[in-house]
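Changelog-adjacent note: as of this version, every example in the card shows the full chain rather than a window. The one below runs 322 residues end to end.
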Amino acid sequence: MPRISLEISLITPAQKQSRAGNRTTAVRWARILRSLGHRVQVAVDYGYEPADLMVALHAWRSSASIQAFRRKHPEAPLVVALTGTDIYRFLASDPEITLRSMALADALVCLHDRVHEAIPERLGDKLCVIYQSALPLSRPREPSQRFFDICVIGHLREEKDPLRTALAARDLPASSRIRVIHLGKAHDQEWAARAEAEMTRNPRYIWRGEVPGWAVRKVFVKARLMVLSSIMEGGANVISEAVVAGVPVIASKIPGSVGLLGDDYTGYYPVGDTAALSRLLRRAEEEADFLADLSRSCAARSPLFTPEAERERWRALLDRLF
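Full-length structure tokens:
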């Protein structure tokens, strides 16, 4: 690490009061970088202030700030963090802007270890995997005995396939104790209406809307497992949170989840396959060995997601850049 304290500009497209993943990540990274002895200014846009380093979340959405920083500080290191929409949407739909940001970067931070498969090979040497961390629960888990609670943590928007778990729970046998607890903000009124309609017709589904972090952790205390049903992810922090909390995961088989849980994990189902997800939910409820295997596999991955591990990866990246 450099002995001097760096002035770091940290850019995120998410506004200050947002609970979006990009804002949560930016706040955590700012805390880590400050703990390493640096001064960090978090902003939505770069204002041409002096800085020794820029860290920009989102190659596409932060492209104007990335270009402005490079013009203002042509020799200063620039780190671009690749989000799921960068990797799995904008590289295809708007490659000019996305690739320009990636080319300007000295390092590309990614959040799971399968990103190299999705980007141009010439940029692979810039990649640095920094897994997102989470804190353990402050109290022991006490799963509900009356219900077999399954949590879904994610906003209601297309990329999350947010109602897939509710759909999978519809046709469970009457003897099943499965209940789906969904925490997350509706992207628009249409999604809110769909969630409310699902609650009306599906007694197993409860949507609680957007909640603060402490409420998510409270649900983890009672939940038997978590489902991440996304169509695309850049490396969901909620997987880190569930794993560190001791909550096993069932996930759609996408690179962003395989890159966190491992190739051999047995809790995957094909994206959008309601019947396959329903079968996994039944196995988790009815087969104690299957649920225990998921728990063991998640526990084996948990050292990747500690605050200490994330901090050391940032330390190593700054060592490399300076």
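Structural remarks: The radius of gyration is 20 Å.
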